[in-house]
């Protein structure tokens, strides 16, 4: 079985409504998969299935040559729409919380702050930050411990051009080291990767619209 991530004939159902079906792809080490498609085609749902947050309605998912089980959560970073940060904590304490959860160290927190130009905001409570600054803190979690698979849902939303450049540099370094990443997006990304359009696989409701995002 191929190393990396392999999906065979996946299907997703949410709220009793079909989202997509018949979805297959492979992602070997060192590669990026860019997932596109209209609203409701299932981009976010696919990432959540891969992360183990949503069950597969059909199909099989393989990770590193074996059926993907709950333990795969220890091999991935997931950055979704929700920031997964505490507004009352300052930037440094938010990252320290995640560092402890991910078995990372103090040096990793410092590196995360530097990677997204957050050092000057370290002691500022998250609630005082702009939407773009908060998104940078969320993305900085990618620096907290080495995990081979990154799942990123619309990672460039709300951040400025300089922060996008920092993200692309981090992503390219991750891929060059043999890591893998799946990015779901509506936006053009300044990185090279294979593309997966969910539109042909999206199930249709009776009204003809996609069922979920």
Q: What's the helix and strand layout?
A:
Layout: E1 5-14, E2 17-27, E3 32-36, H1 43-51, E4 58-63, E5 66-67, E6 76-79, H2 91-101, H3 106-115, H4 131-140, E7 149-153, H5 161-176, E8 180-184, E9 194-197
Parallel strand pairs: 3-8, 3-9, 6-7, 7-8
Antiparallel strand pairs: 1-2, 1-4, 4-5
Helix pairs in contact: 2-3
CATH topology: Rossmann fold
Principal-axes geometry comes out as: globular
Report low-confidence residues grouped into runs of 5 or more. 206-211
CATH architecture identity: 3-Layer(aba) Sandwich
Could you say how many structural domains there are in total?
Answer: 1
* CATH top-level class: Alpha Beta
Give the distance, in angstroms, between the N- and C-terminal Cα atoms: 30 Å
Helix segment tally: 5
- Please tell me how large the radius of gyration is: 17 Å
- Record field, number of beta strands: 9
Question: Strand count, sense and closure of the main sheet?
Answer: 5 strands, parallel
The chain-level mean pLDDT equals: 94
Helix and strand composition category = alpha/beta
Name the strands of the widest sheet in spatial order.
6-7-8-3-9
Order of helices and strands: EEEHEEEHHHEHEE
